[in-house]
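Hi support team,

I submitted a single chain yesterday and got back a structure, but I'm not sure I'm reading the token output correctly. Could someone confirm the output below corresponds to the sequence I sent? I've pasted both exactly as they appear in my results page.

Thanks,
R.
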Amino acid sequence: MGKGYIKEVFPGGNTAYGFYSFYKYIIGDDAKRIFILKGGPGTGKSSFMKKIAYVMVDKGFDVEFHRCSSDNNSLDGVVIPQKGIALIDGTAPHVVDPVYPGSLEVIINLGQFLNEQEMQKHREAIVALSEEIKRLFSRAYKYLSAAKGLKDDAVSVMERCVDWARVNKVAYGLINSMFAGMSISDRLGKERHLFASAITPGGVKDYVETIVRPYSKRYVIKGRDGTGGTLILKTLLEQARIRGCDVEAYHCALDPEVIEHLLIPGLDVAITTWEKFEDSGLVVDLGGCVDEQKLRHYKEELEADLEYAGIMVQEAVKCINKAKKAHDELEKYYVSCMDFHAVDQLREDVLKKILRC
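Hi R., thanks for writing in. Yes, this is the structure output for that exact sequence:
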């Protein structure tokens, strides 16, 4: 058996609405076992999950890496679909508590391996750093909210220049092509929502390639924001579900209400609005739905909106980057007080349980 495939996503993101969570979609209701990791920063939660994940990949299992938007080198979760198993970071800002403790979820408390007496010596520094991290994220979210306001204005301008009757024709042409011969089902398809990209300390990062690559049928909806791409994706999502198809929707890092990518695994179909996939898919160009002469009237407004929105995102990234540096300092206090040998032993025990499932 060869190595398994690694799919990389974000279950939560730093957005215009603050931290936005899709944690309830990390694993479906067919889960067999969920391990919820508790413990402060630097207690080894991400490494714990990552090391188990790589063992499973080496054994031929496909694995999902659910990356952290506040540090995309860290993990918020790992899913092993063939086993029906997830490991999830259950600490703030994405608090996860068991619903069926013991029977489905297992709490793994890495905090038990902390030297609490030693930690008390650093209490003031830990509190100060924690408060500074909160302040910086609050500031970042104000910038992202401003960026969304500017992008919304650009979208509303663009929408005035779109022939929506043409967009609807494009949408229903895709429906007829994609779902040819499929009738309405007695079963409503399941939906799953995640992020393919995130606003991180290093800027906007994405793992779209790992999401789209396995699909042999790819559609690229080409068009500027406001020309109907999201409307078409939402329409395709509902049309797939009423035909009994399960779907995965991937949302915009800035505005989670916007869908940028859609997967329909049962049909081996991936639909994306990212033009970098033009060379590997069927392109659906919405440019013909735009009145370019009318659009020229708004050219300066559009350019200003998008320029200043970009600046706001850059300022947010600076704040998130500062928060990451403060978090790194915070982690040092926990790392110095941890018994990682005990963590390693516990991880081996958990790995054995996973392999037995």
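A quick pointer for reading it: The longest helix spans residues 123-159. Let us know if anything else looks off.

Best,
Support desk
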